[in-house]
Amino acid sequence: MVYRFDPDGSGSVIAEAIEENLEPFLGLHYPATDIPKQAKYLYTLNLLRLIPDVKYEPVGIIPPLNPLTNNPLDMSMAVLRSISPLHAEYLDNMGVSATMCISLVKNKQLWGLIACHHNTPKKVSYETRTICEFIGQIISFELAARENSQDSEYKIKLQSIQSEFIARISHEQELKTVLIQNPDSLLDLVGAEGVALSFGDEITLIGKTPEKSAVVDLLLWLDTQFQADVIYETTHLAQSYPAASNYTEVASGLLALLISKVEKTFIIWFRPEVLQTVNWGGDPNKAVEIKSDGTLRMSPRKSFAQWQESVTQRSLPWKTCEIEAALELRSSIVGIVLRKANQLAQVNQELSRSNTELDSFAYIASHDLKEPLRGIYNYSSFLIEDYGEILGDDGADKLNTLMRLTHRMEDLINSLLHYSRLGRAELQVKSIDLNNLLEGVLDVIKASARDTEVHFKIHRPLPTIKCDRTQVNELFTNLISNGIKYNKQNKKIIEIGYLDGDSQIELEKGVTDVGDTKEKTIFYVRDNGIGIREKHAESIFRIFKRLHSQRKYGGGTGAGLTIAKKIVERHGGEIWVESVYTKGSVFYFTLQ
Amino acid sequence: MNKPNKRSLLIVEDSDEDFTALVRMISKANISNPVYRCEDGEEALDFLYGKGEYTDKFIAPRPSVIVLDLNLPGIDGREVLTTLKQNQDLRMIPIIIFSTSSNPKDIDACYLQGVSGYIVKPMNINILNQLVKTFLEYWFQSVELPN
Predict the structure, then answer these.
(1) What's B22's domain CATH number?
(2) How far is A365 from chain B (nearest CA, A)?
(3) Fold of A2-151
(4) Are A365 and A416 a contacting pair, CB within 8 Å?
(5) Is the model's pLDDT at A146 over the cut of 80?
(6) Which residues in B have their CB inside 8 Å of a CB on A?
(7) Which pLDDT does position A308 carry in this prediction?
């Protein structure tokens, strides 16, 4: 059999040639303790090791200590050196009577052994031994080259996956899409069986992975594992993260790539427990033989059991080339992210440019449009003043219409200007007692609507909230004056108040879910006015949208509700209307 | 009270129509004080500093009051205002802004610079008439001005 050592000192049988009646050992793994360090060292010194008969009687050296040095004689290089009694027992248990081991050495390290067993004592001739030693040297020679080429085949495969993948990535705009759309490449890139993609709070699972909820928890822990590094790898996740012992069958090994800590972007590959991936040479459940006195019988089967123990919850190691592939992937992803950031920066620039344009637009509206308008108005009035008699009543009438239209145009421009200013002005958020604010609003409204009979109802004091006083003042003013303006009742009633957390409407809006209901108080302004048809419930908030002609309900520009909506939105709230046509409307709004 | 006749008014206004309207209202108010006009900021500064075509003190006497539009071609009203208010001598002359802009930012900025008044150009001839009348009465008949 050919036995190969793993980097951790354990080993496995990778090839064998046996008589039919013998039990195969192919694929069996043995723990590092099976062949101790000292034994391994000796194998590198003696390329050939022979035990013609396991049941030999060792003969001591006389004297045991060298009289000149007072030390035992170094027997390292002696072909006839005795073996450890444990080793002899081990072999005996296996039913082996004679062995010969040929060392396979790569780069001065013991790579493996060609172990020959015989079930009866056997002496090997000097010629055969020499040839065996020679074969061992030839193989040792070849090993490095063979392994390199085998490795490089894998490396080339990885590289081709990588370059193909990166080519695809660089064409794609959306990182997430490209990763999800190429699940096989993503897994093959590092030789994983499962992968979790985390983009902020969004997690996508591909292949064999733990449950989503487990990945969410894992991410919290993983987040703390990255210090200066961008990669985290383990072949024994459950050791550093005990919760992972629940899903070792899919995630014993973990390779995590940090793309962005701030945005919580991770790629996490999983490898299953190695038990699941190794091709067993026998039934692992029959591993241990127990003697009649209850002690464990030394046998390869027992070793096998030990190995099994030592590899639970572990995955195959992550190869350097796989880790490099992951890092390579990261740098191309970072490239994409950077490109995106660039695009974002550009969009930002565009935005600030168009904001500036909006500013200058507002300016144009305020000055450049108004100036000629004022000219038209003034000159019309000069015409009436200077040539009124010649123009006659009809002519003067037309000029008056012209002047009225310029006024209307000015109103529209002013509304637009006001609306645009409202969007850009910085909010002056302070604690405002709404009762005090409303008192001021009502004083002004009462003064301007002196001829109409309006009854204001405020059933209970309003709360104190954080808002921009000027804007909220305007909000109440607009809603209340609309309630009076669009109202044909002799006795106009305006009710102002707010809703309690348990009220029906609040539940419908799902506001109570937010938890702190105080922050999301729903205010309302109710009137007994003309009401709004259901189909207009949305469009009334559109700028310059009017439901009535200029001659009805005292005219107006149609900006009042648009401005109200803007104010509410700037406060992070919502505004909506409920209305019964001809009976009245209720405007609800939140401010938070 | 100073002799009203001696007081002169400099109007810095690029719009012919607005200037015409102003002059019309001034003449309606029966006030015969001399009125000078500059059409842009550069001309206004030349006028006040006696430079360019205004080197002759006779055609460019020091005005008692300045009416300044904010939006002017070239050097605009804000710059004229800043320049004048930094001049030890000229900063004494009261400046009244006469602008289309009702933007609170503009208004605050002008008062910070030390203007004596800010009037938003109205779109109503009667209001304009009233404003001009009040303005003239105040600056040419009611208050004392620096010499």
Answers:
(1) 3.40.50.2300
(2) 10
(3) Beta-Lactamase (3.30.450)
(4) yes
(5) yes
(6) 15, 17-18, 20-21, 24, 71, 99-103, 121, 123-125, 128
(7) 60
